[in-house]
Design brief:
With 647 residues, the chain is of the alpha+beta class. It has 10 helices and 36 strands. The site of ligand H79 has 10 residues, from loops.
């Protein structure tokens, strides 16, 4: 991952037959790379585009030069998008660029041009394929005109794997960027092996998380045990980074991925550069998309922005390339990245907004400052040092309208005056609760109180988990050299009475399960519905595949707990679900979503408790998993021996 982490900035290229249509089909506008689906173009009509694809102005070296000049370290181009058309010379299909008048292997030309530059070549390859006869499912609107009879998905997977091998061996991509993995036909049993295949054919290739089924919606981060080397937020930037987790936000320059002649909603150069600073300050990569035109040139707006981005990067690129997430939370006025320099550290502050009056005050930190400079400006900087504080003034003429970069060299690793984080399994408990406090920064002491007062430098120092046995207001703050240097945190932990157990005259093992049919966007009111089937199951489980759609299940019975305590429940589902215990909602995970987990706590007396799990699926992937654990202990799937049906 080393080169990829250092790169921080890449170019996404969406190019294919759809670029010819430029977003319009028979007067219907607003489309792009999805046009065959969104404008419902029959496959035989779409195929006619083959004879029109002739991008005579395409110049691989020129594209790579534009990326390189913009400070981008890699390009990711669509080897194949959802329409199935291949921009490369594939021995496995004629639905490729060699069947067009152009007859030039675009991937080969770009891969070669990259080799002669500082830009790495990479490919985007769609799993979903609306052209291959064996791909399933069909688009809903063409089920009648393109019947699925005779289609064999396993044969499609073989085609996919053959092409992936072909791309890896012929074009040497640094990243294999999969997409279109969300349809129900693509499962973990295909995703895991496809990742393995990439690794086997090209051991150093980096594979995104859309190879498998672990992507959590558009937020893009991997959930559960799934393959993939990095998360893929799409059209969004996470609120915070996650230490040790690799991710890349892919974002369009206007509103569309593929070329749309009417889409003039381009983000400004300033906006794009600030997005870059924001992403890198959180430890991510920025994959900025362009949608070339059918003649092989880029929209002028994209050319202009790439050039302006490049001018900024030429001066300020060192604050991006090879840097890591900054040690501070985002500021109202800008962002911060950092780079190690031996035992010392460079902090790069990206200043978006200067104060209307007076110096810009940097966040307080504990390190000695070696040097402060402005990238691209040799003089005119005024620096005011106070106790653990640095103020900076720069005449407005010297400021960069996109982002001015202050490069600050400090001794050692950053000592950030951050408030402690609280780590606790729940806010409620029955017997006792162990609470941990943590700061990431070296050199800080945490002090805390349990009587509601603000911690002072005489309060108790945190050295290990605090065991609570009664309702407590815990307050804590960070101290440096015995001085209070952070805001304080204050959390109330409550000792609660357990819910009484019920008695049931007779019981049988397992849960009663009722099945309902319907088209819902959230859990319906089951009291008004009649089940279409009823059975009994050992645990909270859905029927084995094939995945059912437009369906809901309700599990009902009793849960046995063997000691009186607070219990944590983790309910994962795709789509929505809810857990009720003794008639109270403990976890609400309702709504249309891909696989996502939520937690809740229930204080329970030793004995039997009524349990109800409600779940529904509209379309696509489906799962349901209920874990529980005594507070402070690991969570496990609820075993059958703890579940009973009423007598
Ligand atoms: O290639 C570009 C788009 O054409 C493609 N990805 C980018 C990089 C793309 N296809 N579809 N979408 C983007 C949006 C689709 C979102 C959804 Fe889902 C698919 C909503 C429900 C299924 C995946 C699973 C995202 C949320 C849940």
């Amino acid at each position: 991952m080393t080169w990829w982490r250092e790169a921080r900035f890449g170019m996404f290229i969406h190019w294919g037959l759809y670029s010819i249509l430029a977003g319009e089909w028979k007067g219907s506008k607003g489309h792009a790379e999805w046009i065959r689906d969104t404008a419902r173009i029959p496959v035989d009509e779409y195929e006619k585009l083959l004879s029109e694809f002739n991008p005579v102005k395409f110049d691989a070296k020129e594209w790579v030069r534009m990326a390189e000049d913009a400070g981008m370290k890699y390009i990711v181009i669509t080897s194949k998008h959802h329409d199935g058309f291949c921009l490369f010379d594939s021995q496995y299909t004629a639905w490729d660029v060699m069947s067009t008048p152009f007859k030039r292997d675009i991937l080969k030309e770009l891969s070669d041009a990259c080799k002669a530059s500082g830009v790495r070549f990479s490919t985007y390859h769609s799993i979903m394929d609306w052209h291959h006869p064996d791909y399933l499912p069909r688009r809903p609107w063409e089920v009648a005109t393109r019947p699925a009879e005779g289609a064999n998905f396993d044969r499609f997977v073989e085609y996919l794997r053959n092409q992936v091998t072909e791309i890896l061996t012929k074009y040497d991509p640094g990243v294999m960027w999969f997409d279109g993995e969300w349809e129900s036909t693509w499962t973990h049993d295909y995703g895991g092996p496809l990742y393995e295949l990439c690794r086997k054919v090209k051991p150093d290739v980096i594979v995104n998380n859309r190879v498998d089924k672990g992507r959590g919606g558009m937020a893009g981060m991997t959930e559960g045990e799934h393959a993939g080397d990095f998360g893929t937020p799409e059209q969004e930037i996470p609120a915070t980074g996650i230490p040790g987790v690799d991710w890349e936000s892919c974002i369009t320059m206007n509103r569309n991925w593929g070329f749309n002649a009417e889409d003039k909603n381009f983000k400004s150069t300033t906006e794009l550069l600030r997005m870059l600073c924001d992403i890198v300050s959180k430890g991510g990569n920025f994959l900025l998309n362009i949608g070339p035109k059918a003649d092989g040139t880029l929209p002028q707006e994209s050319i202009d922005r790439l050039r302006e981005i490049g001018q900024w990067m030429k001066v300020n690129g060192e604050s991006i390339h090879g840097t890591n997430a900054g040690p501070f939370e985002p500021f109202g006025w800008g962002r911060c990245t950092q780079k190690r320099d031996g035992n010392d550290t460079f902090l790069y502050f990206h200043v978006f907004e200067w104060p209307s009056e007076g110096p810009l005050m940097l966040p307080r930190f504990g390190n000695e400052v070696d040097k402060v400079e402005v990238l691209g400006v040799s003089s005119d900087l005024t620096v005011i040092f106070g106790p653990n504080s640095v103020g900076v003034s720069l005449p407005s003429a010297q400021r960069d309208p996109h982002a001015t970069v202050l490069k600050v060299r400090i001794k050692g690793k950053p000592i950030v005056f951050e408030k402690p984080a609280v780590i606790a399994p729940a806010l409620q408990f029955v017997n006792m609760l162990d609470v941990q406090l943590r700061v990431a920064s070296p050199g800080l002491k945490i002090r805390y109180t349990m009587d509601g007062t603000l911690p002072t430098n005489r309060s108790r120092e945190y050295i290990g988990p605090i065991r609570l046995r009664a309702t407590t207001l815990l307050r804590a703050a960070s101290f440096y050299n015995d001085e209070l240097v952070s805001d304080d945190i204050s959390v109330r932990f409550e000792k609660v009475a357990p819910w009484p157990a019920t008695t049931v005259p007779t019981t049988a093992a397992g849960l009663a399960r009722k099945k309902y049919a319907g088209n819902w966007d959230k859990l319906p009111n089951f009291a008004e519905l009649t089940p279409v089937a009823t059975d009994a199951v050992g645990t909270v489980t859905l029927p084995p595949p094939p995945t059912e759609e437009y369906v809901a299940y309700v599990f009902e019975g009793f849960l046995r707990v063997d000691s009186t305590d607070a219990y944590v429940f983790d309910l994962r589902s795709d789509d929505g679900s809810r857990l009720e215990i003794d008639g109270t909602v403990v976890v609400d995970n309702d709504g249309l979503h891909s696989s996502a987990a939520k937690r809740g706590v229930a204080p329970l007396d030793k004995g039997l408790h009524r349990i109800r799990v409600l779940w529904f699926n509209k379309t696509g992937g489906a799962d349901l998993e209920l874990r529980m654990g005594q507070i402070g202990r690991p969570l496990e799937l609820i075993p059958g021996e703890l579940l009973y049906r009423g007598g």
